[in-house]
Write a structure and sequence with these properties.
Number of strands: 30
Largest sheet: 7 strands, mixed
Helix content: 25-40%
Oligomer: single chain
Strand order of the largest sheet: 3-2-1-4-7-6-8
Strand content: 15-25%
Distance between the termini: 87 Å
Radius of gyration: 34 Å
């Protein structure tokens, strides 16, 4: 015991912790030592658990011993989980798509029950668009919903339709087994109704089956909509998808042990070995892992291609999310109790460990629940679950906790935010505890297969939300009471010796429960379908003119694009053209639903598409979903500790804020001009408060009488025909919102008014001083960056004699000084010989021979556009000048 005492002596313990964390930090910085980092983290975890066992379990009485032992066993579960994680993360495979030497026949099976048909349509279109010989694959729609409209959709797309008579027996597994009897393909590709394959799915995966011993090829599940945590907590891409860790890291590690398993969708199986085991397994409600385990037990191989080749939908509601997780937990525990991988004949030791580790994970509910309520024993009843001083506990606990957080980024390949596993487990722990107890109590009872709802329109329901989180609310309330009492006892110097630890522990649990409650609080849904981020070119045709546009995000209902300047039109709808992935030009009918100016100077335009015809829909779906490369973009940002802590803080703050959407189809500008409203019977004078190209808000001093429909609104040089769309009466004032029906006169002045006002809104003109210039370019100093369209600006220089010199050009560089001023480099449009001579004569400073030799140096901090180096390498020297200048927006025709 002396050795143990020396090992756990405070100076030595702190030294070990510091050294271990230093080594991990150095390895992360050098981007190497994956296995060494995992080993150090595991040893720190094991050291903590050994210290807990030897020094911290209370033994004063039976109640304290029982409580302390229960908490210790709950923490021991966490150590076992970390061991499984270390084992599966130890040496992941890095496979590349295998070339195809032969083209086996493939049956693509899409399972559907009652999901919305638009979701099924997207999947079927993408299945039919595979870059694989058309006569070598067949798409089957396996309809357990028995809907005639599903059969009609399948027929319209050229797919086979299968409807079994014994629905719902054996749920998805029974549906697939029925289709196996009616098909003949050598390979079976399975997709859930919402999993849309890229066009290269078969081309990248079928080649692995050249090895006759390969029975399974699986690819990652990727989800294009935010999961329930990203959506309801409004953390977006700051937090990785909850399933990303398993599919981007753990499955690749299991592949090294030949234990990567078929995940129910986005995978292929060879028919022959599948039929040898009787098809998809029906003894449990998780047919995927059970079928895979039986194939591995017969000696067949699996391959995991860690490349996103399909994208699906996460459950849109907390209720749907819990249904999915409860089904997985129930099925995996059924596998353990009915076909234990630890004793199953034919599995290797590595396969036994991996399969048992996957099942063991779903028992986390009870240990997490124990850790949630354990501080209450000390806070409410002065019975501490552990005996430890704060200094020692901080050293042993936080050393391994920080080490595991540091290691998470490189080991998970950026697929999991540190600390967020605690959030996921707290949100699920009560529901999965009940499921685990039910499965253990009746392991052979046949359980219903609950289909995970997809494509739902999120509807807020306080009663549903409360029914899902009432255990969280009760625990939350008890912790609030306990922390209040515990804080009072600590202030009075009373309470048990572990009170400070329990106060901190309870506070952390309270924060985790708060986030869990926010997860269950459904956020309003702004649009029917989720938009996918994309980047490709398009063109809008407005009033007969083409406007180049860049797509930001898109779905079948609409898109967000950026254009160089605001669009001013009374046209209700117009054409939007884009090029398909195969080079075909397709035109969609769209209308503007919003316009937003962006800091870059460009305008973001929200488009809503009219109903698409069959041909256009196919092209658009293939354009959006067919290319697999954009799916990988979301994994390039790898969150570390700092980003994860910020996202936790955001999850506690942002859900309180109301959601807002911009619904204006034209940019609204501040007014101020006087106007006159004329009707056949009356004339009123008012003041314009704000306006857009299609609407005007006017304030009148007094009540209005009579009808305002088809009234004329007269502004200086502009006459508009308007109709009222809203009215608010105040004491001695009336506020009316008008829609512009037509421009009766002064259309050009009306258009110019908006362009000029929009330029002012962008911060133009900007006044500053020119530094130097030649006939090709100039540099000016401005008080802030240019935020207008970089490619079209107008420059007005004031010559020594006071006359203006007008130039046009584009911004090529903006660099900010420490004082906040911005040096802007502008490339001028080509000048005539006369204009060049005039420019040099009027604007340059004294003789160029007074200039210092050598390149011009600029400040280091860059803002806005920077397309040339900090050191100029121009061929024509710039002449110094000290003239006043102004930057305006150039009119683009």
């Amino acid at each position: 015991m002396t050795v143990f005492h020396d090992f756990f002596d405070t100076p030595i313990a702190f030294g070990i912790s510091g050294l271990a964390l230093l080594v991990i930090g150095l390895l992360i910085k050098q981007k190497r030592g994956r296995r060494l980092m995992l080993t150090i983290s595991l040893l720190l975890y094991a050291r903590y658990m050994l210290w807990r066992l030897l020094y911290t379990i209370p033994t004063e009485d039976a109640a304290s011993l029982a409580l302390g032992s229960a908490v210790y066993l709950a923490e021991l579960y966490g150590l076992c989980q970390f061991c499984f994680f270390t084992y599966q993360s130890w040496s992941p495979t890095e496979r590349a798509p295998a070339p195809i030497t032969t083209y086996p026949t493939v049956d693509i099976m899409v399972t559907v029950v009652d999901e919305p048909l638009p979701i099924l349509r997207q999947t079927l279109i993408s299945c039919m668009a595979q870059e694989y010989p058309r006569d070598r694959f067949t798409v089957y729609v396996l309809d357990d919903g028995h809907r005639d409209e599903t059969q009609q959709l399948a027929a319209s797309l050229g797919c086979e339709y299968v409807r079994r008579p014994d629905r719902p027996r054996h749920a998805k597994a029974g549906n697939l087994n029925h289709a196996l009897q009616l098909s003949q393909g050598e390979l079976i590709a399975v997709f859930d109704v919402d999993h849309i394959p890229a066009r290269t799915f078969l081309k990248d995966t079928v080649g692995f089956f050249d090895d006759p011993n390969v029975a399974i090829v699986q690819t990652p599940h990727h989800f294009y909509n935010p999961d329930i945590f990203q959506r309801n907590l409004r953390v977006g891409e700051e937090v990785k998808n909850e399933q990303a860790l398993f599919f981007r890291a753990l499955q690749a590690g299991r592949d090294t042990h030949n234990s990567a398993f078929f995940a129910g969708s986005s995978g292929l199986l060879r028919r022959k070995p599948l039929m040898e085991i009787g098809g998809f397994q029906t003894q449990t409600i998780t047919e995927d892992i059970h079928t895979s385990m039986n194939l591995h037990a017969r000696g067949y191989r699996s391959c995991y291609l860690n490349k996103v080749l399909s994208a699906g939908l996460m459950p849109e509601t907390f209720d749907g999310y819990l249904k999915q997780r409860k089904r997985w937990a129930m099925g995996c525990i059924q596998v353990l109790l009915q076909d234990n991988p630890l004793t199953k004949h034919g599995l290797t030791l590595a396969q036994r460990i991996d399969y048992f580790g996957s099942i063991f994970y779903f028992f986390f509910g009870l240990p997490r629940l124990i850790c949630l309520v354990a501080p209450l024993a000390s806070l409410l009843f002065s019975t501490s679950p552990l005996t430890a001083d704060v200094l020692s506990l901080s050293n042993y606990f936080f050393s391994f906790f920080l080490a595991s957080a540091l290691v998470m980024r490189p080991v998970s390949r950026g697929s999991r935010n540190p600390f967020w596993s605690d959030v996921y487990e707290v949100a699920m722990c009560f529901a999965l505890t009940v499921v685990a107890l039910k499965a253990l109590a009746a392991p052979h009872k046949e359980r219903p297969f609950e289909v995970t709802p997809k494509g739902q329109r999120v509807k807020k329901s306080s009663s549903t939300e409360l029914s899902l989180v009432w255990p969280h609310l009760i625990t939350f309330g008890l912790l609030v009471i306990g922390l209040t009492l515990g804080g009072w006892n600590w202030w009075q110097g009373a309470g048990d010796p572990g009170l400070q630890v329990s106060l901190f522990w309870g506070s952390v649990n309270l924060l985790l429960l708060t986030i869990a409650l926010f997860v269950a609080r459904e956020q309003a849904q702004g649009r029917q379908g989720f938009r996918l981020k994309r980047d490709f070119a398009g063109q809008l045709f407005v009033d007969g003119e083409g406007v180049p546009a860049r797509v930001l995000d898109v779905n079948e209902q609409g898109a967000a694009v950026t254009v160089g300047q605001s669009i001013f039109t009374l046209q209700k709808s117009f054409k939007f053209a884009l090029t398909s992935s195969r080079g075909v030009l397709v035109t969609l009918t769209a209308r503007i639903v919003r316009q937003d100016p962006k800091p870059s100077g460009r305008i973001e335009v929200g488009l809503q598409f009219d109903e698409l015809d069959f041909f256009t829909r196919q092209i658009l779906v293939d354009k959006i979903y067919g290319d697999p490369d954009p799916w990988e973009d979301s994994y390039r940002i790898q969150p570390g500790i700092g980003r994860s802590l910020r996202s936790l803080l955001q999850a506690l703050i942002v859900p309180w804020r109301p959601l807002t959407w911009n619904r204006r189809n034209m940019i609204r500008l501040t007014g101020g001009a006087t106007c006159q409203i004329t009707t056949p019977s009356s004339v009123w004078r008012g003041q314009v408060k704000d306006m857009s190209f299609t609407g005007v808000s006017v304030l009148f001093s007094g009540p209005l009488q009579g009808s305002l429909i088809d009234a004329l609104l007269e502004l200086p040089e502009v006459t508009l025909r308007v109709r009222p769309v809203g009215m608010a009466r105040k004491p001695r004032k009336t506020f009316v919102r008008f829609q512009v029906v037509s421009i009766e006169s002064g259309e050009e002045q009306w258009r110019n008014l908006h362009k000029e006002t929009a330029a002012i809104a962008e911060g133009l003109p900007l006044e500053g001083k020119a530094l130097d210039l030649n006939e090709q370019s100039l540099a000016v100093v401005l008080p802030k960056p240019v935020m207008a369209d970089f490619d079209h600006v107008q420059i007005i220089l004031t010559a020594d004699n006071g006359s203006p010199v007008n130039l046009t050009g584009r911004v090529v560089r903006q660099q900010q000084s420490m004082t906040g001023e911005v040096v802007v480099g502008i490339e001028l449009a080509e000048l005539s010989s006369e204009a060049t001579a005039n420019l040099i004569e009027k604007c340059h400073a004294p003789s160029p021979f007074t200039m210092k030799a050598g390149p011009t140096q600029y400040p280091e901090l860059t803002v806005g556009r920077s397309s040339i180096p900090l050191t100029d390498r121009r061929r024509i020297p710039r002449l110094p000048t000290h003239t006043i200048c102004a930057i305006l927006r150039q009119e683009v025709r």
